[in-house]
Amino acid sequence: MLGIGHFYFALTTCQSTLTVLPSSAIVMPMIKYFFLLAVLNGMLSAQLATGPQLPMKVVDNWAKLPKGWNLGETSGVAVDKLDHVWVFNRGTHPVIEFDRDGNMLQAWNDVPIISSHGIQIDPDGNVWLVDVKGHAVMKFTREGRLLMVIANAGKAVGDNTSTDAFNQPTGLRFFPNGDFLVSDGYGNSRVAKFGKDGVWQKQWGEKGTGDGQFNLVHDVALDGKGKVYVADRNNNRIQVFTEEGKFLSKWTNLGSPWGLAFSTRENVLYMCDGVNNRVIKVDLDGKLLGVLGGFGKLPGLFDFPHHMAVDSQGSIYVAEIKNWRISKFVQAK
């Protein structure tokens, strides 16, 4: 007589018969499946680069808001030539300017956006906003006066070939002459280049996993030396290109790139790894140099670090979606 461990029993609901199958027909494939799954998970974990903790500390209560004010989901942050910090969030005051000590200088109330995402300051000091749900990129004066809109009428969606519209764009970055790149985005899969006048010049990218292809283009950065760094978020890699869009290399072991910031002072790239709730510092060959943060709700920890900026003194500002805050980190003494 065979033991119960040798059989898999399945009682049908429509008949009174009992179906008896050898356990190996069911159990062995399941064992193989879970074994392969464990191996794959181990491989993915092993691929994630790590390094020493960066010698930085969070500044407690840095952002000094008026009584009764709060940030909403904080999607973007930028630093201008004065080291003033511009915060883009989904609260009732979408754009807020702070000095480096966290004193609020101004806030914009009437901002014609649907949902905040990226923010940058151009070489002339103008403020540019990316409206991810409005499929728009907009230019403002420092006082909040709208100067330029790149979007379809009614903020309708553009496709991957549109020259004046986007599909959930995410970020932008400026060349010294005022030309700029737009990462586009959640719906499209491209990097588009525009002139200072807002006129489309060229683009590269399409949906996919190959070199030069993207799956959620979430940010873009420039190093001032002819290279473009693209946050290919859902492909879990940074792709490196020439300024003309020629593929050079890819970094595949750093986590999920959400936000990018190049530090001229250090000649390194910082990256928000949103999935692993950390900020990392890498050299321009993709080698990880250090790690900041980890998951948590307390100051100094992250929950969806979305975007970041670095000022002239090397301080780091991190915008978080799920913690609804902007955090400043300085060198630990």
Topology at a glance:
Blueprint: E1 7-11, E2 18-22, H1 24-47, E3 56-58, E4 74-79, E5 85-89, E6 95-98, E7 104-108, E8 116-121, E9 127-131, E10 136-140, E11 146-150, E12 169-174, E13 180-184, E14 190-194, E15 200-204, E16 217-222, E17 227-232, E18 237-242, E19 247-251, E20 257-263, E21 268-273, E22 278-282, E23 288-292, E24 305-310, E25 316-320, E26 325-331
Antiparallel strand pairs: 1-2, 3-26, 4-5, 5-6, 6-7, 8-9, 9-10, 10-11, 12-13, 13-14, 14-15, 16-17, 17-18, 18-19, 20-21, 21-22, 22-23, 24-25, 25-26
CATH superfamily of the largest domain: TolB, C-terminal domain
State the shape.
globular
Overall structural class, as computed from helix and strand content, comes to mainly beta
Distance between the termini: 75 Å
Question: Biggest sheet, strands in spatial order?
Answer: 3-26-25-24
- Tally of discrete structural domains: 2
How many extended strands? Answer: 26
CATH architecture of the largest domain: 6 Propeller
Oligomer: single chain
What is Rg?
24 Å
Tell me what the structure shows.
This protein is mainly β and 333 residues long. It has two domains: 4-47; 56-331, Neuraminidase (6 Propeller), CATH 2.120.10. It has one helix at residues 24-47; strands at 7-11, 18-22, 56-58, 74-79, 85-89, 95-98, 104-108, 116-121, 127-131, 136-140, 146-150, 169-174, 180-184, 190-194, 200-204, 217-222, 227-232, 237-242, 247-251, 257-263, 268-273, 278-282, 288-292, 305-310, 316-320, 325-331. The strands form seven sheets. It has a four-stranded antiparallel sheet with strand order 3-26-25-24, with no helix packed on it. A hairpin with a 4-residue loop joins strand 18 (237-242) and strand 19 (247-251). The radius of gyration is 24 Å and the shape is globular. 38% of the residues are buried.
